[in-house]
Amino acid sequence: MGQSAFDKIYEVVKQIPYGRVATYGQVAALAGNKRWARVVGYALHANPDPGHIPCYRVVNKEGRVSDAFAFGGGNRQVELLQAEGVKFVGDCVDMAQYQWERPVY
Question: Would you state the CATH architecture of domain 5-98?
Answer without folding.
Answer: Orthogonal Bundle (1.10)
